User: What shape does this take?
Amino acid sequence: MPEEAERARRLLPGAATPYLLVLPAAAYLALFVLYPMVQAVRLGVTDAQGAWTLEHVRRMATDLYFWPAVRYTLLVTALAVPLQVALALCIALLVNTRFPGHTAFLYVCAIPLAVSDLAAGLIWLSLFTERGYLNAALVQWGVLRSPFNFLSYEHPAWLVGAIVTTEVWRATAIVMVVLVAGLQLLPRDYVETAAVFGANRWQTLRHVLLPLLRPSLQTALIIRTVLAFQLFATVVTLSGRLVPVLAGETYFWYSLYRNPHVASAYATLVLLLSALFTWVYLRTLRPEGEGA
Amino acid sequence: MSRTVALSLVAVLAVAAAGLSAPAPEVLFTSNQLTPVEEQEWARSTLLAGFTRETGISVRFVTEPEGPYVDRLLAEARAGRGSIDVTGTLHGIFPVLVAERVVRDMSEVQRQLEARRDRTFYRDLLAVSRMEGIQAFVPWMQATYLIAARREALRYFPQGRNPMRMTYDDLLQWGQNIREATGERRLGFPVGPRGLYGRFLHGYAYPSFTGAQVKKFRSAEAVAMWQYLRRLWAVTHPSSFRYEFMHEPLLLGEVWVAWDHTARLLPALRQRPEEFVVLPSPAGPKGRSFLSVVVGLSLTRWSPNPEGAVRLVEYLTRPATQVLTLQGVGFFPVSPEAARVVPTGGLKVMAEGVSAQAGAPDARTALLPVGLGARTGEFVPIYVDAFRQIAIEGRRIEDVLASQARRLEELYRATNAPCPPPDPPERPCRPD
Assistant: This one.
């Protein structure tokens, strides 16, 4: 017995330390993320008696809102995420030039980070409604003679535009923070070397900075895309259920229809889509030369 | 510095421990009513504070949307123990609570209340409180849905017609007149996801046009009704799809004529009582149908503090408290003693509309569906989805009604539930 303990103690520093250190985080993830996730998936494919069934998945797929929800979720993601990344990259590069007042500028740009998505939806709703600030301003300046209804069921494109605008405003900051951090980690030598070889700003950005930023871009894209699949409060605030999204349907099936099974089927679908896109980003944006 | 922190930590822990060891008398009261923040605030600081002042029993009031609200009750019922003492919810939810053995038979409490001789209860409310052989709840408050309109909109009301005897044709003509005169669509309905437009469809339009909520779902009368609703939608404000509480667009002036739950119209009347009128819901070919919403109180079977719980029920149903509730949140009394108090301001406007609706010679009361158990939440979406497909997506009415009727029939067959009044009492209910 004491011998064994002695051996274990000797073994510890070498082999077991990393596992011991990872253990708390792993236990946390297993208990609070993995276990609920397995439960949710199980709820989506079993009936009230616990028997295996595809009935809930079938109900989800034949629901009136299902295909519109899939379409709009992908559409909003495809429109908002590239805009967010492009805009965040511009802001990050601007901040990185360290112009006088760049810290204040950074903080101002980060303000939306502190606003919840519901509050963001309400802010933009108060801009876009018939009696909103935007209409009031446009009428005041003589651009419009009477208020224009931006949020009308007759113009779904306007609704999507309002949602994408709100999302870009709300979530560009998180991408920017990731990219600013990434830029600040890059050694100045690369940029200086490029300058020595006569590269102009565009060439430096295209051939030096962007390739080096790849890991940060990858992180930012994964975070943003996964969060875009969870998009919910802003959409519901601005468009009700006229522009259905997957996360919104999950909520409505749970809280309005009181059917946790179909809600779980939706949640599982969101999980699968998130996993798929993360995998695609990890494959396609793999840093060059690394691991090869 | 660190000493101060440590000392204050110890102090906090000591206070917490004291709280644990000697619990103050408390009642845990849950509800899915009074969920808007202002109403919660009112319930805690005015309604329940009065009870605590009188009895020394503090009340923890937890109000949540229907989903989590019912889940918590069911979870405690399945565990066989819990902390909820009293619960207050819609008449339509009680069948679930009775089936899952959540609530007690309240007959004894009812007898005690009536023995006090300061209150009686409306008989029709007591009648709906009995289910599965027990009295599932003591009536607490009631509400209905009707129309609020800006006074200035009345000048567009069809000539020679009486707004207090409005028909569905008048309503459509009214919307058209407004549109012709102003170029704008000023009728409004709460079609948003958490709006109550579904209640308009099954409890108002369907019985008024077809005489039934479920039985005539795909009848020729129903087809005519949907054709009418399409025309009505064309003069309805195009943002109606996101409205959930009609007092907001009414106060903004986006909407001039709005249909909604009394509690969701009242804030507008309260802010500007002289600007609004309240009108009964319209009448159709089969009468003026309206929903009567009954909210009841019941004790859980496992209530840790049943004495405190009964005292709370007594306090909440007392005529003076009923008047306070009407003034605070616009829910109407359940006893005639309280109803005799004449309200003022916006409430007076509302009360006149409510009595004009209930007292109309062609009035027909519809009740929320019961007996659908865990699948209660699926009833309203069948109507709202039909509306979406017919009015917004422009699909063929007969096709939509045929497919939605199949869902309705399956729902009733699976739950073996009776038709909700005014339909004939058939079980299971089956659309023709």
About this structure: The interface with chain B takes residues 64, 129-131, 146, 149, 151-154, 236-242, 248, 252, 254-259 of chain A (CB under 8 Å). Residues 60 and 262 of chain A are 6 Å apart (CA to CA).
